[in-house]
Amino acid sequence: xxxxxxxxxxxxxxxxxxxxxxxxxxxxxxxxxxxxxxxxxxxxxxxxxxxxxxxxxxxxxxxxxxxxxxxxxxxxxxxxxxxxxxxxxxxxxxxxxxxxxxxxxxxxxxxxxxxxxxxxxxxxxxxxxxxxxxxxxxxxxxxxxxxxxxxxxxxxxxxxxxxxxxxxxxxxxxxxxxxxxxxxxxxxxxxxxxxxxxxxxxxxxxxxxxxxxxxxxxxxxxxxxxxxxxxxxxxxxxxxxxxxxxxxxxxxxxxxxxxxxxxxxxxxxxxxxxxxxxxxxxxxxxxxxxxxxxxxxxxxxxxxxxxxxxxxxxxxxxxxxxxxxxxxxxxxxxxxxxxxxxxxxxxxxxxxxxxxxxxxxxxxxxxxxxxxxxxxxxxxxxxxxxxx
Length: 388
Ligand SMILES: [Zn+2]
Ligand SMILES: [Zn+2]
Prior knowledge:
Elements: H1 2-28, H2 37-49, E1 53-56, E2 65-70, E3 76-81, H3 95-111, E4 120-125, H4 134-140, E5 149-151, E6 154-156, E7 167-176, H5 192-207, E8 215-222, E9 233-242, H6 245-266, E10 269-274, H7 286-298, H8 316-320, E11 325-326, E12 329-331, H9 342-347, H10 351-373, H11 375-387
Parallel strand pairs: 3-4, 3-5, 5-11, 6-12
Antiparallel strand pairs: 1-2, 2-4, 7-9, 7-10, 8-9
Helix pairs in contact: 1-3, 1-10, 3-10, 5-6, 7-10, 10-11
């Protein structure tokens, strides 16, 4: 078994040039969510060239793909690639590294196909992580139905085996009141903006009573037409985040109650529009993390200082709520550099990122190998998943 792992690491090193080019090319051509046709094409071609059977447009998502490598009856392990960019600042989330690392892990396994235990390796291209919820669509489209375990990595300013991800519910509140002259007949109006402001005030008080790992933040998207008209329409948009799925929906209900109370107090009517793109919290799977950690050590990846209070959200959370899934963070930028910045975009193709890419590809490929070699570990991961 260690022979095969040695071969896997060598295969990734042999692919280093191709993987760096893949990462650089995706980086140089940033595409927004659901428009990643070029990246989807490059990754599919690469995996096809290295022995995978590739289908594009899976799950009804045009820029998604599923590449498969079969060696007989056994577990199905998925390695996920993201490749969407951010508006204006390109690959400031480093998804070019996620894409190349995932494709590299797959290609390395294809190179040692003769030594692979029985099973199926999938490399799944998951578009539109940055707000578009690509993985949510792929889950609904059945792409994960036969998958036993899934893994991906994300670039970060340090390596961390596990970083919590908050679930997020997005909601819009539209208040309708009654217009009136704000000086001549203010008493004839119903102030929709007051309802909005009252919602903010109530939520600000609520914030004191929530746990420190929850987040509630919002903006006013419509605050009225002119200062001499009592606003008849006003709207706000809120994001509600929490680290556990039940806590997330519980907090969401309390936020809606704040808006309902504000509508009641002002006499405005409220329309609540809960948006479809809910990102669920990341459910931890220690069985998979332990395997990943053991392999990580063999390629010289060491964990950095934990930062439990810097919390984001991702649709990998939704995957982790339907099957065992992990997303270790891999250091690809200097410690302290924040993601979603122009600096991080620049760092995502520098030597540190190239090294992280190769180390991540090796670790994911070796972890996938372990799961194929020991179906009991797959069962343990699933049992752990079922327990919580
Ligand atoms: Zn991001
Ligand atoms: Zn990201």
